[in-house]
Write a structure and sequence with these properties.
The protein is α+β, with helices and mostly antiparallel strands and 289 residues long. The protein is built from seven helices and 14 strands.
Length: 289
């Protein structure tokens, strides 16, 4: 089913991102929020990452305690494995149809996660391009960031550099260390050209896999939680191990397997597989640097 207008699709292809309201209905959004609230409450009883995913890493990743603040839930790996609501949003919602409008008709899942910034948490995301973490045979990948909370200017919204998906793939290795972030001078240039992606709960930001982006800490009293689904075209094949492995990887949510592989010329360094989480890879303090 076609959901996006031609104007919206052209905006995405020109700029590398698109924010659309009502990507899930109100009933499903309520289920998503209820499940996440339960996970937040459960995480309050822990001061270190906990749970387990299929590769043995913790499912629930916590911002370490510090500066008088307790540990706070910042990421949940593969929520579709532990929540019917999150599986439904990923596999069969208007959001899924929007992705098919952009890179369809054959769409498969790569991975899912939740990134959350609790009020006052220090969690931030340094600038990077997703494709450098998850290279495929071609770059027809869309990251769908579903807003579980209202995303405002103050609670750490996603910032993007429009049009950067058409430019180079920047290294996220710096001086032989996998930092998961672009070099400082490149980040400053991207920030000067950046725009914020904000919206009410239930909106989605659809982002091209090569689009440069980052985000600042949550300075408000309100949470900022995103359910993130990474989808690829049916003929895009992963070139490296999935950094957020899931039993749902490779399922077709629209169309069917074309039994073809399509290639695209590019060059990128092989990413480092995370020992814990993406946030730990980007954090100097947690690397002990």
């Amino acid at each position: 089913m076609t959901v996006l207008t031609e104007t919206q699709k052209q905006f995405f292809h020109n700029n590398g991102y698109l924010v659309v309201e009502d990507a899930v209905d109100a009933a499903l959004l309520a289920r998503l929020r209820s499940d996440f609230d339960r996970w937040v409450a459960d995480s309050a009883h822990h001061d270190a990452p906990f749970g387990e995913t299929i590769d043995g890493r913790p499912r629930f990743d916590l911002q370490p305690p510090g500066n008088g603040k307790p540990a706070a839930l910042r990421r949940l790996q593969a929520p579709t494995e532990v929540s019917d609501a999150y599986y439904d949003a990923m596999a069969d919602s208007p959001m899924t149809d929007m992705v098919a409008d952009l890179i369809g008709p054959n769409i498969k899942l790569h991975h899912t996660k939740i990134n959350s910034k609790q009020p006052g948490a220090a969690t931030m995301v340094k600038w990077h391009q997703d494709f450098a973490f998850t290279p495929h045979s071609n770059s027809d990948l869309v990251t769908a960031l579903l807003m579980i909370d209202d995303v405002t200017e103050d609670n750490g919204p996603l910032a993007v550099a429009p049009g950067s998906h058409k430019g180079p793939i920047h290294s996220i290795w710096q001086d032989g260390v996998f930092t998961g972030a672009v070099a400082a001078e490149i980040e400053e240039e991207m920030k000067r050209e950046s725009v914020l992606c904000m919206g009410k709960a239930g909106s989605v930001c659809l982002m091209h896999t090569r689009l440069a982006h980052g985000s600042e800490p949550n300075l408000s009293t309100q949470p900022r939680t995103l359910f993130i689904c990474v989808y690829s075209a049916g003929d895009a094949m992963p070139c490296t191990p999935n950094p957020v492995p899931t039993k749902h990887m490779g399922i077709f949510v629209r169309g069917a397997d074309p039994h073809r592989v399509r290639g695209e010329a590019y060059d990128v360094a092989v990413p480092e597989y995370p020992k814990t989480s993406f946030f730990a890879q980007q954090s100097d303090r947690e690397r002990g640097a």
